[in-house]
DNA sequence: GATGCTATTGCAACACGTTGCATCTGACAC
DNA sequence: GTGTCAGATGCAACGTGTTGCAATAGCATC
């Protein structure tokens, strides 16, 4: 009932990041020159300070992990994030990671949803806001693209003015293949 | 961030069920005369035995709780179910309840979904299959009725043949009232 | 009613995530 | 450079749910 664990294709890559990333020196994340506006976290340290929050080594570690993930699927569970942080800093504490994720969500750097199994899934921004489809047959997962999302959101918003948080949407069911091979699973 | 705990309006009522419900005698659930087809669990003992499964006191306790809930909202968390079972039988063990719920889900007696906070929510059947809307502002919850559901399901099924499991669908967002009072929460 | 098989239970340990609290430290003021 | 203080960390305990395993007990059979 569990066990459909996504592989970690970039796991090794984390340890091969540009030199200096894991040292105590200021990393590229401290670069607030304005030339790195391509990433939403380029000016994160100053954004934190502007809110009276702080830029700590633990937060830098998590941000480095998230930067790598933004280049891949952009979807990870809390446990995966902790493991990846531990690869960079073995002293990483789970509660610190989860608390930092809360802060980053406030800042719009990440969003979280709950997968079909109830576990948290984090999405690294920037990405088009999207929901997810999870097949309970083959454990596959797909994104709900903008077109489908529009119809879906309109269906709910139109009738009662409910504003859907698309990034938190996980739809369970059977994909076309699984539905075909077991046509009467849910009569 | 948590704490929007639904009250348990029927908690006391559980202990006031019809006489015989909590005794060791065969309850109404053992009645397979065919005259109680109104409830899907009237013949549960024999349905279990037909599958090589067993009818135990622990399962009877849970079924009695579910029978009460079917008359109310039909939505409960795992913890609430355990508490209600303990009201009938203080020796109730959580793992037994969860395992029994798995069995009952296989039999179609209950369905489960995950709320916006990731916790499990169980729905007692029979009920029209429906999804849920959760407002992250006021913590309110509403059901997605058949009309909305049809449009929504069609939006997903139409484009790629994905068969939506509506009863597992929880949509987070802001209700009309909350959306109005905080118009720019998610720009 | 007695017997045997095996589904089920109770328990303990585990997994993921949250929370309370004492301690530490980033960052601002001087 | 030093002092100050609120935000952040580390740790332990907790909450909800799952899993492995030995012991128990339904229930089919005789």
Oligomer: homodimer
Helicity range of chain A: 25-40%
Termini distance of chain A? 22 Å
| Gross geometry of chain A | globular
Percent of sequence in beta strands of chain A: 15-25%
Strand order, largest beta sheet of chain A: 1-3-2
Taking pLDDT < 50 over at least 5 consecutive residues as the criterion, the unreliable ranges of chain A are: 1-37, 183-187
- Structural classification of chain A: alpha+beta
Write down the overall mean pLDDT of chain A: 74
Radius of gyration of chain A: 19 Å
Order of helices and strands of chain A: HHHEHHEEEEHEEH
Largest interface, C-beta closer than 8 angstroms, per-chain residues: A-B, 37 and 37 residues
How many strands, which pairing sense, and closed or not: the largest β-sheet of chain A?
A: 3 strands, antiparallel
Count of helix runs of chain A: 7
- The count of DSSP E runs of length 2 or more, i.e. the number of strands of chain A, is 7
How would you describe this protein?
The structure is a homodimer of 187-residue chains. With 187 residues, chain A is of the alpha+beta class. Helices cover 37% and strands 16% of the residues of chain A. Chain A is built from seven helices and seven strands, in the order H-H-H-E-H-H-E-E-E-E-H-E-E-H. Chain A has helices at 11-14, 44-50, 57-70, 78-88, 94-106, 146-160, 176-181; strands at residues 75-77, 110-114, 120-124, 131-135, 141-144, 163-164, 170-174. Chain A has a three-stranded antiparallel beta sheet with strand order 1-3-2. Chain A is globular and about 50 Å long. The two termini of chain A are 22 Å apart. The model of chain A is unreliable at 1-37 and 183-187 (pLDDT under 50). The A-B interface holds A 102, 113-114, 116-120, 133, 135-136, 142, 144, 147-148, 151-152, 155-156, 159-165, 168-176, 179, 186 and B 1, 113-114, 116-120, 133, 135-136, 142, 144, 147-148, 151-152, 155-156, 159-165, 168-176, 179, 186. Chain A binds a DNA duplex (30 and 30 nucleotides) through helix 4 and helix 5.
């Amino acid at each position: 009932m569990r066990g459909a664990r996504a592989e970690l294709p970039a796991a090794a890559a984390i340890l091969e990041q540009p030199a200096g990333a894991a040292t105590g020196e200021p990393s590229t994340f401290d670069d607030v020159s304005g030339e790195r506006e391509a990433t939403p976290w380029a000016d994160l340290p100053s954004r934190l300070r502007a809110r009276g929050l702080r830029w700590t080594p633990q937060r830098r570690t998590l941000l480095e992990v998230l930067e790598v993930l933004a280049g891949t699927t952009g979807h990870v569970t809390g446990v995966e994030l902790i493991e990846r942080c531990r690869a960079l800093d073995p002293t990483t504490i789970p509660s610190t990671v989860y608390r930092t994720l809360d802060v980053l969500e406030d800042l719009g750097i990440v969003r979280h949803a709950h997968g079909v199994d109830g576990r948290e899934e984090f999405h690294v921004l920037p990405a088009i806001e999207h929901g997810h489809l999870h097949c309970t047959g083959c454990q596959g997962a797909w994104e709900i693209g903008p077109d489908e999302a529009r119809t879906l959101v309109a269906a709910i918003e139109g009738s009662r003015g409910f504003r859907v948080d698309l990034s938190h949407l996980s739809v369970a069911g059977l994909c076309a293949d699984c539905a075909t091979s077991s046509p009467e699973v849910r009569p």
